[in-house]
């Protein structure tokens, strides 16, 4: 496992990429409404990313056909935008944006309410946000990857939700996906020891029902096995001596 340790000379570029991804996600969020299609979101991401001098990192990655992932309701992640998929009032919708700028990448996602959510939808979305934040709070030089996963899993347990195990966060920087893999479950005090200068994503996928998932025949879309709602929030973080810097805040 070759994990890049970034130095201060890289921080400005990492921050630019993270900020670009964050601002594109905000641009999209302001336009979400019942009646749009997920293909509209893809169009907005392409246009806004270009305006910021970036490129959509996801487009063409291992054959992925779109510039953004759009995951509704029981879709856990990697939903492919489509002109045939129309967003409806009451949906929850995750939008996952990754932007490349000047050779570096930033990755962020959030789950949004379309109209008025059900109590169950509101709960799983707010739980997912708290799970991400619990994982981020465990990051600092000298901590271990297991500390992050344990914090996320414990938060999900308190919420009465489950955490998807088949997918996790990942290193990021000069490439969109790099080592280390960041599990969203685990045992505190185990796993890779974190060092200042590491950069990775924390992006727990939290289900209202069980943690099991299914992969659809399109090769990308992941859904809950039991059809329950799923939500996700993601930040890119830079490990520091006493915590972390959230590059996509």
From TrEMBL:
Boundaries of every Peptidase M24 domain copy: 13-241
Alphabetized, the UniProt keywords read: Aminopeptidase, Hydrolase, Metal-binding, Protease
- What does the record's cofactor remark say about binding? Binds 2 divalent metal cations per subunit. Has a high-affinity and a low affinity metal-binding site. The true nature of the physiological cofactor is under debate. The enzyme is active with cobalt, zinc, manganese or divalent iron ions. Most likely, methionine aminopeptidases function as mononuclear Fe(2+)-metalloproteases under physiological conditions, and the catalytically relevant metal-binding site has been assigned to the histidine-containing high-affinity site.
> Which molecular function terms from Gene Ontology are attached?
initiator methionyl aminopeptidase activity; metal ion binding; metalloaminopeptidase activity
- GO BP terms in the entry: proteolysis
Query: Which reactions is this enzyme annotated as catalysing?
Result: Release of N-terminal amino acids, preferentially methionine, from peptides and arylamides
- Kindly state the subunit structure of this protein: Monomer.
Q: Which family does it belong to?
A: Belongs to the peptidase M24A family. Methionine aminopeptidase type 1 subfamily.
Name under which the protein is recorded:
Methionine aminopeptidase
Organism of provenance: Vulgatibacter incomptus
